Structure formats: structure tokens, C-alpha cells
């Protein structure tokens, strides 16, 4: 088994200056944001632009490509694409995450997956058949999913435990509001292009993928240039030994999780509730298109979601410092039960889609941000990437289950509302496991 190291590593190519000792990372909740924390949060601003574009515009674009090819069921097709991307990341991340815990490897994996995702996003701007577009989307989404595992684990190398809720919430918050800047530009090109510039909306959508890829790249560079991996395992002398150590660590981690009741219960709860969050986010526009809602209105409504999510995420971070991250997560899960029921049973007009967008914005950022930081408090810091790999398995496999469930039930019944309603069962299960779990962070100073 590889040895464990907790102190700051020597200077590397990605960080020419000597890093501060680990105990000097910011840890007072009220302290101003440090430069390192700001650079870490910028990646949320970059990748969130891709998430917003592919949540709102891409399903509409795919819907047009499918109709041109004589296909009609956008919900099931888009759902299967989401499922494949999530499944690939879920399979890869525990192994790659464990390797990334080796000294100096975290940033290398992050660069590789992020770079692949950005290139695939840029390539989505090219005219192509719907199947080719979906393949590129799956590559880009897989790269994003994988990069987020490494990025999430970087939180423990960026700030102290008492600031994790705040910094994670701020990251999501600036991601939501920052991602709207390129999106508004893209939306202007898409909507104004046919009237003022003489090109089609399709061409405007294609341009938006190139713009988003450039934005994503620009806000990735500060993190890549400055990141220092404080928590790591020392490298083995040979690759064979490193791989053997990696699989040994994986086995140890699985046994540790299985015997840590509070961590296991939380991960099971997370598996169920993040299903609803990811599925509602990724399937909302395609579901609205299936119901025949106006595409432009849905896109603008999702833009409102981002603005609502910005202050909500910050508020969640502040409330978590007062009453606890787990309690705030539980409140959000209960709220999502109502959101899913509203979407499945009541939504059939643009006004109701706007209501749904606001409701999602109120709880989306908070539950994502606090899930990331709360988990970081429960795990060993020097094996963060490996543990976040398992976190990713639970989160991405939930995405596989949620999107697959919606797609399959919609295909079988021909009723998209029943597909959406089915994920409410998973949310109830999440509430049960959250209530069974004791919050170990409440006893810490």
C-alpha cells in the first residue's frame, strides 16, 4: 500500500512558487476570499456555461435534428445520451480517482479530461447528423463529469474545513451567474441572427457551442496555473506498483465505507436524491419540448433559473454555517419531492414552466454545493480523489438510473409525465436514509 502524505508538496511546474503550509489555508468562515479560493471557483464559472447551454439550447437543437431525420421522441433519445455519458464516468472515476491521489497526478487528470471536453464542445459547432452530434455530446459530457470529480476533490486542497460550505456554495453561485454572460451573448446571436444578420437560428446555435468552448477554456486556465495538491499519496517507483497500490487502496476504501455507517448512509441517500436534481436539470427542456411548449420561452426561463440560483446558493452556504449542511440538504430533498410532483402533474404551459424554473433555482445550487462540501468533511483528506471517485459513482449512477428511468417509462407508456413522476420514489428513499444518518460534523468545533 502506498504511503500517505499530508504536508504541502514541493513546487511543481504548475506552481512555480513555494506553496503555503497546509495549516495556513484559510479556515475562518468570516475571512475574505483568498486568491487560491477565487481561482478554484472560476472553474465553476467556466464549466457551468457548458451545462447551461446543453441543458437549454442543445436539446432543442437535437430535437430539430431528430425531426429532420424523421425521429420524434426527444425525451427518450436525450435521456439515453445522458445515461451513457454518466455511466462511462461512473465506471472510470474510482480507478482514475485513486491514481489521481498520487502526488502530482490530480492536475494532470483534470487537464486531460477538461481539455477533451472543451475540444468536443467546440466540435459540436460543426454541421452534422444527429447521431454524430450526440456522440460528441457524450464525449464532452463524459469529460465534464470526470473533470468535476477532480475539481470537487480540489476543494480540500483549497480551503480549510470550516470554510468548505461557504467556498463550495460561492463556487456554485458564481458559476450560475457567470455562465449567463456567454449564454446571453449566444441567445442574442440565436434569436437576432435571422432578423438582423441574415443567418439561421441553426447557425446561431452552432456558433454558441464555439463561444461556450472558448469561455470554458479561459476560466479553466487560472486553476490549472495555480493549483497545488496538498493532500496526496506518495508515488510508487514503478507503474505496476502504482496500479497494484491503487487497487489495494480501492479495496480498503470500499471496506472502510461499508463499515462507516454514517458515511455509507449518506452516500446511499446522495445516490437517490442527486438523481432527481440531475434528472430535472438535464431533462427539463426536452420534457417541455415533448409537451409542446415554446422553445424560446423555455430557454429564457432557464436563464432565470441561473439568476435565482445565485443568491440561493450563497444563502445556503450561510445557513449551513448556522444550522448544519446536512439539515439544509434534507430540506432541499423534501422541496424536490414537491418540484417533481409539480412538473409531472401540473405543468402544461409556459407559465408553469417558469414557476418550475424558479423553484429549481431556489434549491438546485444549495443542494449541489452543500453535498460537495459535506462529503469533504466526512472523508480522509489525503485520499480525497479516491473517495470523490466513489462519490461520483453514486452521483453519476444515480444520473444513469434517473435518466434511464424517465426515458424507459416514457418509451413504454408514451407518457413523459409518468416518467418524470417516477423519480419521486427515489427522493422519498433519500429522505429515509438522511433521517437514519447521524451527522458527525455537529460534534466538531
Automatic annotation (TrEMBL):
Q: Where is the composition biased (Low complexity)?
A: 1-17
> According to its UniProt record, where is this protein mainly located?
membrane
Residue ranges annotated for the Major facilitator superfamily (MFS) profile domain, each copy included: 39-442
Which GO CC terms are listed, alphabetically? plasma membrane
Q: Name one Pfam family in it.
A: ATG22
Question: Keywords in UniProt for this one?
Answer: Membrane, Transmembrane, Transmembrane helix, Transport
Membrane topology is: Multi-pass membrane protein
Compartment(s) where it occurs, according to its Swiss-Prot or TrEMBL record: Cell membrane
Q: Give a GO molecular function annotation for the protein.
A: transmembrane transporter activity
Q: Which residues cross the membrane?
A: 45-66, 78-97, 109-126, 132-151, 172-197, 203-224, 263-283, 295-316, 328-347, 353-375, 387-410, 416-436
Which SUPFAM superfamilies does the entry link to? MFS general substrate transporter (SSF103473)
Span list, region Disordered: 1-33
| PROSITE patterns listed in its UniProt record | MFS (PS50850)
Signal peptide residue numbers: none
PANTHER family of this UniProt entry? AUTOPHAGY-RELATED PROTEIN 22
Please report the name of this protein according to its UniProt entry: MFS transporter
